[in-house]
Every structure is written in structure tokens, then in C-alpha cells.
Amino acid sequence: MSDRLRMGGLISGIDTDSIIESLVSQKRQKVTDAKGDQKKLDWKRTIYDGINTNIKGLFQSHLSNMRFSGSYKKMTTAVSNSSVASVITGDGAVNATQKLRVEKLAKSAYLTGVDLNGESKDKTFTATTKLSELGFGEGSDTISLSIGGKAQESLAVTGETTISDVLTYLKDKGLNASFDEDTQRIFVSAKSTGSSGDFTLSDSGKGALEALGLKVATKEEKDADNYNSEKYASKIDGSDAIIYLNDAKFTSDSNTFKINNLTITALEETGDKEVTLTTTTDTSGIYGMIKDMITQYNKAINDIDKYYNADSIRKYSMLTDEQKEAMSEKEVEEYENKIKSGLLKGDNNLLTLRSLFTESTSKGIEIGGKTYYLSDFGIGTGNYFTSPDNEKHALHIDGDKDDASYKDKADKLSEMIASDPELVTEFFSKLSQDLYSKLDSASKSVDGYRSYGNFYDDKKMKSDYDGFNTTIKNLEQKANDYEDRLYKQFSSMESALASLQKKSSALAGLLGTSTQ
Q1: Which residues 6+ apart lie within 8 Å of 50 measured at CB?
Q2: Is 471 exposed, middle or buried (CB count within 10 Å of its CB: 0-12, 13-18, 19+)?
Q3: How confident is the model at residue 131 (pLDDT cuts 50, 70, 90)?
């Protein structure tokens, strides 16, 4: 509505505003209708986004892999004693039975310092305690560190050096280091297992490590008659894991070995005993891959059917602002959801997509001179007349434990995978390739209409949506201009009536008569 200040009907007594509002209302309705059409287009675009997501999920996450026969070469490895080792079977593993022996598990280097308080327990040290307080004499010393056989930059210490200074030095070199005030001990450990993480500490003989409780006894000191273990730090050396697979020796700085497409994690040393690793075709993995694909297929086609078969919404018009004000939020939401649900009823693009799906899954595929169908693998659609609405094109696997209506049927798919995995592989890879190619063609970029990878005209919808902004603006301007023109016309009429009244009054005055 124009924002000009107007006053009408003062002379004529006509309700100018009401008349003009009535005359302009038709043009205002065009604005309202255009805004409603724009909103419905936005709803339609949102619905298509959801359908598009489901189809993309099938196209990108399932068909793109299943069209290659290599995706079906799934293997699994069973360990005769699962407490000894776990195995992840990678692509390219072959059927085999192997013997495994775990001679040694990888260990992390770990140093436990001496109780700095000793037996007296008369003092309590902290990380800020100086070496001089720990009994280190005058002068200086040098602490040297080697990790994995490689010498690190040493640390010069004096009586003023604190425990914290030493801990910081060790941490900076890549070790874990801490001081436990409860036990009054320093703890140092490697961040990884294996000999590559093993470390050694030494000093220049001035007693820095002894004061810190980090001195490790040498072999000679351990062999001495007066050897007292409580005066020395306890050290576990970092060591590599050693396993024997089919009598071949393998070493690793961790307990995980990658050997011929098997990832073996040693969990327990076996000594001279062996466990058996049995690698076979993973029939459950192939079954799961096919089932997951069909689940996503059903999501996509059921969604298509739901919107294509929706009830007519012809009797539902968009709510006006006045109508919304008279309704609750829930009532408005329910009403608008009815409109949304039917926006794609009978949509030609949905029909094309549905036909694309059903053509691929119903066609026969020739393998070795024989034509096979999904039904030969125990997969098909349900009874058309008894299937739930919008699920009449969904696929079901006989014997699927998650499908209440089909779980009691013979599990033909699993039997086929176990008895002839090559046939299953060739059939489903060809079926996936066919559906993939159709969907790939359907999602090609179309200039001005469709972006690559989408299954609806997203560009055209956006262009149309943006076009409504211009249309609405023009319609509003036309309504305002029409309103202004009407007010101008009525204003001219009022001016004419005022002039006529003035002339009548003057004439009456000349004639000596009253206009009353």
C-alpha cells in the first residue's frame, strides 16, 4: 500500500478509502498469489532435495562400488584362539590356513625412580625441589639421554636445578615424565612401544641421576655382593614384538603386523604353542553389502512413490495472513503439510526416475549363456495388492531377519553366495553397473536447468524462485500505482465538487437566497 497521507470524501461524503480498497484488492490478490506460488516452489525444492539425497546415497555410496567385481572379494579370518591375536582381513587376501606363534609382545620403555624420601619419610619433596635439597653436592653435572640408540642434546644441571627442570627436558625430548608426590618418585616412559622408543639416561659421574633417584644399576653393580635394588631405579627396556607366521619370523616395534593383506595384532605370547588363522570368503560381508544397497534403494523408491502417489491438493489454497492469525501454530503446520505432501503428485520427473529404477531391477542379466533375474537370488517386490501404500516397488530379500514379512522364507541369497560367489558377484556387479549408468545419465548437467550430480532441475527452480522476487515487486508497484491513480481521480472529483459548491454559494448570495 502507498504510504502517502490522503484525506478523501470530505465534500462528497463518499467513503473513498473503502471504495479504493475494494478496487485495488484484486491487484493485491495477485501479489498474495505470487508470494504463495513462490513459497510452494520453495517447499517443492526442499522435498526434491530430500529425494535427491536418498538417490545420491544409493548412487555414490553403494552402486559406485558394487559395479566393480573387486568389491565382492570380501574375506574374513578366524583365529582359533581369539585371546592370542585379532586379524583384520584386507582386500586381496586369499583363502588360506596359516599357523601363528607369538614369541614376544612389544613393550614400552618404562623407568620407575627411587623413593626420594627413603625410609625416613621425614621430608616431602615437590616438582620445585632443587637438586641440592636431594643431596646433590656443589658443582655441576651433565645428564645425557639416548632414544632408540640416538644421542639427544644433554642437560647441564647444578644444585639450583629443580625436578621440574629435568622433567621438562625429558618431555621436550619426546618422553613422558612426571613426579608423583604421593610415592615421591619420578616416572619416565616412552610414548611408543618397541626398541625404537627405548631410552637410556646417564650422567658424567657427579651424582645427578642418583640424587634424582633415576640411576639404573649396571650389570657389575647388580652382581656385587652388597647390591641393594631399592637404591636403584627400575627399568623395563623397550622391545619389539616377534611373531612367527608359518615359521617365518617377523618383528615390529608395535604389536601390529601387516602381512600379505592381513593386519595381525598380537595380544598374548604363546611360547611354543601355535594358533590357526583361517582366511575364507566372507559370505556375510557380501550379503550385508547387497542388503545395504537394497535398503537404500527402497528408501529412494519409496520416497518417490510417496510423493508421486500423493492425494490431490486442489482443494487447498495457500493461507492468507488473516487466516493464519485465526488458527493455532499446530493447525497452520498441519494445513501446510497437506499442501507440501501433494506438491509432486503425478510429477513427470518422479515417474521417469521410478521407471529408471524398476527397469534395471526387473531386467534379466545373461551370465554364461543363461539369463538370471533378482528372483533367482530370492529378491523381489511384494504382492502389489497387499503391499503397504508407497512400498509396492520396494525390494525384499527372502529370509531377511529384519523383514517381518519375509524372515521365515528360505534364505536363497545366502545359499547362492556360499555355493557360487562368482555368479553372485557377476550378477550384482552388472545390475549395479546398469543402474549406475542410468542414474549417471539422469544426473548430467543441463545448462540453465540442472547441476551435475542432481536428479531434478535445481538450477531452473532457483531461477524461477528468484524470478518471483521481481514478479512480486512489479505486482506490488502496479497495485500501488493503481491505488495512487484512484486517489488522484477521487481527489479531482472532490476538488470539482468543492468548486461547484463555492460557485453555488456565491450565486445564492447574489440572488439573496440561501443554499440551505
Answers
A1: 303
A2: middle
A3: very high
